[in-house]
Design brief:
Helix content: 25-40%
Structural class: alpha/beta
Radius of gyration: 19 Å
Number of helices: 5
Order of helices and strands: EEEHEEHEHHEH
CATH class: Alpha Beta
CATH superfamily: eRF1 domain 2
CATH topology: Nucleotidyltransferase, domain 5
Number of strands: 7
Oligomer: single chain
CATH architecture: 2-Layer Sandwich
Strand content: 25-35%
Distance between the termini: 9 Å
Number of domains: 1
Length: 148
């Protein structure tokens, strides 16, 4: 992996489907100094607390055949909603000039989910994506992993 070039004021967004760290570089390109600007967490209650009922059944219009409907994956739905809200937050940050450059760091699954929610402004400000799940690490370790 080539070394990331992170300018002063650039944001590094480290996330998965439940937690996001928005880090800002207070240093410069030569000596980055990442500081936590924002932490967003999404509670993920057990499926039994999220679902409303057992999976439904569908009756065929002809004959007496019945089939069941697949259970909704509530965890995936809540991850999707969390990442959509994060993409909205990043859009506000870019359009209001809070930051001009972003780098996304997330698991391939989370990146795949959030990509479709990037606004045109976020796409333009995006300097790169790193396919790593680093959200559970302390900031100094994230810095070491990204800038090694």
């Amino acid at each position: 992996m080539t070394k990331l070039k992170i300018g002063t004021g650039d944001w590094i967004v480290v996330c998965d489907g439940r937690k996001a760290l928005i880090l800002e570089n207070l240093g410069d390109r030569m000596f980055p100094n990442l500081h936590t600007k924002e932490v967003r967490e999404h509670p993920d209650p057990p499926t039994s607390a999220q679902g409303s009922d057992a999976p439904g059944r569908v009756h065929a219009s002809m004959g007496g055949a019945r089939s069941s409907v697949e259970q909704t994956d509530w965890h995936e739905e809540s991850e999707r909603a969390f990442l959509k809200a994060l993409a909205g937050r990043l859009d506000v940050a870019v359009t209001t000039g809070e930051t001009t450059a972003l780098t996304m760091v997330a698991s391939p699954r989370a990146l795949g989910m959030i990509r479709s929610d990037y606004s045109a402004a976020v796409r333009k400000a995006l300097h790169g994506e790193v396919h790593k799940d680093l959200v559970k690490m302390p900031v100094y370790e994230i810095e070491k992993q990204l800038l090694a």
